[in-house]
């Protein structure tokens, strides 16, 4: 039974909705709201308390794009967590390929590197005891109906993955949506490798699917943002390409609470859709099951964690 859970990106969208659903779950004693903005965090806490009638929420200030902030958040936790939901992410802001002080792209920093430092610090200090969930994306195996191509690497070597992390892999490309799938692919590989190194804790990647009513798409170009925000919520559900934020958050909770979702596996939608039952994504894209590729991703990420 889960009693204490930390959710990153918890002030809005999937993170906030997951916090709401968790608070209504039997046995929950504390839901840590991992947020980078104190004012938004306080507002989310008030709204969640009002919506649930529960006083189980506590704010943890954390900016996953800043490793010092991540390490400070771990130090601030004085009791072990039963579960961790690594939900924060996105395209990486207005300049997703700009590099951080750690030498990684903004997109990789917010989606992967900060979470890698967070979960490994928790595991090494025995502050995570049962399960962790990383928010993946079907873009990691390609979404043909949306023109999202499958990640096409030459060797998936450590050096090639390093080039993805530091942005040199993409050359002069500025399309953040094209880069996003590759970033999420590397993340899924890394999580699978990490799961083999920490078998006592269940570590799972799961996509929430395409969800309406979230902050997703806020940093897209104007036309793409309009389509995502205005057109998609009306049209996409007709083709199984979008569901409500409540359904996306329910995917998180189902995986957290159901041990049959196996450690080291990436779960997402069936091919050609972004909703419905969860399946092992390596059935669609076999490279996701390669332990060599998984370990290469782990090693590449660790080059930037010091």
- CATH architecture grouping: 3-Layer(aba) Sandwich
Q: Which CATH class applies here?
A: Alpha Beta
Q: CATH superfamily, please?
A: NAD(P)-binding Rossmann-like Domain
Physical arrangement of strands within the biggest beta sheet: 3-2-1-4-5-6-9-10
Structural class per helix/strand content?
A: alpha/beta
Parts with pLDDT < 50 across at least 5 consecutive residues:
none
- Please describe the biggest sheet, giving its number of strands, its sense, and whether it closes into a barrel: 8 strands, mixed
* Tally of individual helices: 9
Task: Write the element-wise H/E pattern from the N-terminal end onward.
Answer: EHEHEHEHEHHEEHEHEEH
Give the mean pLDDT: 92
Give the C-alpha Rg: 18 Å
What would the CATH topology be?
Rossmann fold
Q: Please give the share of residues in helix.
A: 40-55%
Number of strands: 10
In the residues, how many domains can be counted? Answer: 1
What structural keywords apply?
14% strand, 41% helix, eight-stranded mixed β-sheet, 306 residues, two-stranded parallel ribbon, 10 strands, Rossmann fold, globular, alpha/beta
Overview of this protein structure:
- This protein has helices at residues 13-23, 38-52, 67-76, 106-124, 158-166, 176-197, 222-235, 245-257, 291-302; strands at 4-8, 30-35, 57-61, 81-86, 128-135, 202-206, 211-212, 243-244, 266-268, 279-280.
- It has 306 residues and is of the alpha/beta class.
- It has a single domain, classed as NAD(P)-binding Rossmann-like Domain (Rossmann fold), CATH 3.40.50.720.
- The strands form two sheets. It has an eight-stranded mixed β-sheet with strand order 3-2-1-4-5-6-9-10, sandwiched between helices.
- Helix 4 (106-124) links the parallel strand 4 and strand 5.
- Helix 1 (13-23) runs parallel beside helix 2 (38-52) and helix 4 (106-124) runs parallel beside helix 6 (176-197).
- The chain starts with a strand and ends with a helix.
């Amino acid at each position: 039974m889960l009693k204490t859970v930390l959710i990153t990106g918890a002030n809005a969208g999937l993170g906030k909705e997951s916090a709401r659903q968790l608070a209504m779950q039997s046995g929950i004693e504390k839901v840590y709201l991992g947020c980078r903005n104190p004012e938004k965090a306080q507002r989310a806490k008030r709204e969640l308390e009002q919506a649930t009638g529960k006083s189980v929420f506590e704010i943890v200030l954390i900016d996953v794009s800043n490793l010092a902030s991540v390490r400070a958040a771990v130090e601030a936790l004085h009791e072990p967590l039963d579960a961790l939901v690594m939900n924060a992410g996105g395209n990486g802001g207005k300049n997703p390929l700009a590099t951080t002080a750690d030498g990684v792209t903004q997109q990789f920093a917010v989606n992967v590197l900060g979470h890698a430092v967070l979960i490994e610090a928790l595991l090494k200090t025995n502050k995570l005891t049962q399960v962790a969930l990383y928010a993946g994306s079907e873009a990691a195996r390609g979404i043909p109906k949306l023109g999202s191509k499958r990640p096409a690497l030459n060797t998936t070597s450590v050096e090639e993955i390093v080039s993805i992390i530091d942005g040199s892999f993409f050359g002069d490309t500025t399309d953040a949506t094209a880069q996003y799938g590759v970033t999420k692919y590397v993340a899924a590989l890394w999580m699978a490798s990490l799961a083999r190194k920490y078998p006592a804790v269940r570590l799972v990647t799961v996509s929430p699917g395409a969800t309406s009513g979230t902050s997703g798409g806020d940093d897209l170009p104007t036309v793409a943002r309009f389509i995502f925000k205005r057109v998609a919520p009306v049209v996409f559900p007709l083709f199984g390409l979008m569901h409500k934020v409540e359904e996306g958050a329910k995917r998180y909770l189902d995986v957290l609470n159901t041990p049959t979702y196996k450690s080291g596996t990436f779960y997402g939608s069936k091919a050609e859709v972004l909703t419905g039952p969860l399946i092992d994504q390596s059935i669609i894209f076999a490279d996701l099951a390669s332990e060599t590729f998984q370990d290469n991703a782990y090693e590449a990420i660790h080059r930037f964690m010091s």
